[in-house]
Specification:
Elements lengths: L3 E2 L1 H7 L4 E4 L3 H5 L3 E2 L4 E2 L5 H4 L9 E4 L5 H12 L4 E4 L2 H7 L5 E2 L1
Amino acid sequence: MDRSITPERLTSELTGKYLLDVRRPSDLATSTEQLPNAIWHDPRDIENWSKTLTTGQDIVLYCVRGGSVSNSVIDALHAKGFKARYIEGGIEGWKAAGGAIVLK
């Protein structure tokens, strides 16, 4: 199973994706931007919010730069049988590639 998706590829495949913003609370607090229709969940509370996900959903998540936070959440979701990938470069990579953002 792929662990990541490039911003460019996601742009053309965005329809039908369940977008998760898993930035740390401190990172989220200093940002005014998010991907359209993204839902934020605290990465430290994955045991609780992962119960609301549906197996078979095409989940795409992001943190700030697509590093340790995204990878740890991907590992946990894959272990639970979810189909999930993270955006390479996180929200910063998405914006650099010209991806749409909205103010939160």
